[in-house]
Amino acid sequence: MTGTATATLLRAFNTNKTSWAGLIVLLTVVALAALAPWIAPHDPIEQDIFARLEGPSALYPLGTDQFGRCILSRLLHGARYSLFIGIASTLAAMLVGSLIGMLAGWYGGRFDVVVMQAMDVLLAFPALILGLILVAMLGPTLPNIILAIAATSVPAFARIARAPTIAVKEREYVEACRALGYSDARILFLHILPNIFAEILVMSSLWLASAIRTEASLAFIGLGLRPPIPTWGGMIREGFENILDSYWLAMAPGVAILVVVFALNLLGDGLRDAVDPKLKGES
């Protein structure tokens, strides 16, 4: 099963070769973030008032900000926070939302109606507005930001997990499991989840990009991690005040977000092709 899934994924990636570009770029960014303490040329919070607002140079490849801090160093360290928040919030949303969707699809009836109507209410709020409300209520700390961003993604994962669960639960092998007296939990996690996980994985790659954008947006309006902690959204906010004179302050983190989001979308296209029934039919 694992070998077949891997072969299907590789075939999809080879068909849509831009997916390889997305994967390579994403892995490169993750590696740079992981190695930031060793490869960053300066301390990201060290200030040099005599070097404030310097343009790109040999000493400061991406220039310095209004406090004389190295933009490249802050960009590398900021990737650690921005990626961690995005990945943690997406994983949390995937776990909670998928469980809710599977339970709603499995039990159906009034439980399904009530749960999915609650998800529709959450979906009615734009992700940024809902995240803004939650962070403003809870406070801009790392756990609260992760919780707020995850809450904006839970309804989407619930809907993605519910539909295939309804389809899979009618198949013969699930009926056989019921006849053998297997518990609902065993059927859901051992027999249904493996068959719907591909759709959930595709969704997670696309919503990871959304989570990174939401974190940057929250930081830009002042609801991100408190300075001097570097995040990409916070760096854009700090650089916006000097955008006309020192464009590199906001441009560097802006380009970083653009590159990561674009890479995730390319990767999501490849994953989607791998689970596309039409593609499987052609193989």
From TrEMBL:
Membrane topology: Multi-pass membrane protein
Major location (coarse): membrane
Biological process, per Gene Ontology: peptide transport; protein transport; transmembrane transport
Keywords: Cell membrane, Membrane, Peptide transport, Protein transport, Transmembrane, Transmembrane helix, Transport
Transmembrane parts of this sequence: 20-40, 83-109, 121-139, 145-161, 188-209, 247-268
One matching Pfam family: BPD_transp_1
UniProt subcellular location: Cell membrane
Stated name of the protein: Peptide/nickel transport system permease protein
